Each structure stands twice: as structure tokens, then as C-alpha cells.
Request: fold
Amino acid sequence: MIRYVVPFSLALCLLGCSPAVEDNAAQSADDIAAKVPAGLETQILSAKNAKTSAEQWGRFTEYFAGETEGVTDLLSGVAEIKPGMEIHPPHKHAEEEFLMVLEGKGTWTLGDKEFPAEQGDMLYSRAWDVHNISNTGDTVLKFVFWKWHSKGTKRPVDPAQ
Reply:
């Protein structure tokens, strides 16, 4: 089994950190602690504590859903898609999202175009951009994802409305 570790600083930036994070040295520990939502501490999110569900298309593992100091509507986890399947058709939503292929091969959909999805590839989707990943390979396609809305920013309005 291969384990993937995302450096904490990278994870923070993927989740919408701001330059103010770098100014923490000038703030007191009490000021910083007061900004962290109750119940969320710096921690390891263990696979054994993640919520896993078996789906027709494969397996969905939710590591965290909720709010942090800098984001709301955060959903993070791992999905495993069976060959020839997808979680849902191409879609769009108000949150930004990153997906990174850990194992397998598939097809990215971005708008009305398709691209190969291979191990190590990462997709970023802005709010309301149509996107998807499907498994077009012969083995399970496994990917990690982070979807969120940054605090302090106006929630994007669907341009189609």
C-alpha cells in the first residue's frame, strides 16, 4: 500500500489560506486561538476515524466536513471509482475544488472538453465551472478532494442565473 502525505502548509494553501496566516508571529497565542472554531484543533485525521460508505460506483471516505478558521462548507476525503463508472455526471457548485488522482486512470471533464486523468494529475475548479472525473481505466481510480468556500469572500453567484 502506498501512503500519500500532503504537507500541512500545502493543505492550508489548498484550503484558501490568506497572507495573514504568515503574520501569526506578530499575534499573541490567545488571539490566534480565539479565531479557531470550537472543537477543531490541529490534528491528524486518521483513516480509521473517517466516515466510509460503499456506493454503487465505488467507495466514498469523508475525512472532514464543516468549518475551519478560514473556510466554510469544507468537504475533504478520498473517493474510489470502479472501472467504467463516475460518481455523478459533470456538475458545478458554488465551492472551489481540488481533486488529485492517487491511483488509476480516467477522464477529466472541464466545461465541454475532456482530458486524460492520470496518477499525480490535479484538477482545480473555480466556483460554478462544470467539471467531473470518470474512471475509463481497467482498475479502480482513487482520488483525494478538497471542496470549500473561503470565509471573508462573497459567495459566487451562478453566472447562468
About this structure: Confidence is low (pLDDT under 50) at residues 1-30. The longest strand covers residues 71-81. The beta strands are 51-55, 58-66, 71-81, 96-103, 105-110, 113-118, 122-125, 131-134, 141-150. The chain is about 10% helix and 40% strand.
